[in-house]
Amino acid sequence: MPHTAQQPTLSDAAVMLNLGPKKLFRALRSRQVLDKNNLPGSRYTGRGLFTVELKTYTHPALGEKVYAVTHVTDKGLKWLAREFDVEITQAQEPH
Questions:
Q1: Could you give the residue ranges of the DSSP H alpha helices within the chain?
Q2: Does 88 or 80 have the greater pLDDT score?
Q3: Most buried of the four, 29, 33, 76, 93, by CB within 10 Å?
Q4: Among the ranges given (14-23, 32-41, 81-90), the one the predictor scored with the smallest mean pLDDT
């Protein structure tokens, strides 16, 4: 599923769930939802919970580098709220 501008990053979702990014990333890694690079497993992207956006930047010495950003779908945000038994406390701001 391609990323859309309306999808929050996983860090943004952590704030929306009142969990904090470090706590959420650590918990999802321990549950093997995320890998060591904080990217979701295909099992979770295939279910439409997360998307991954590839971005690039230019490093002064190494040239162009690619990195990935995990985003959460609406379905994924609801799933996270259920998994962690929390409310979604902050609506996402439109970009």
A1: 10-16, 21-30, 42-46, 74-83
A2: 80
A3: 76
A4: 81-90
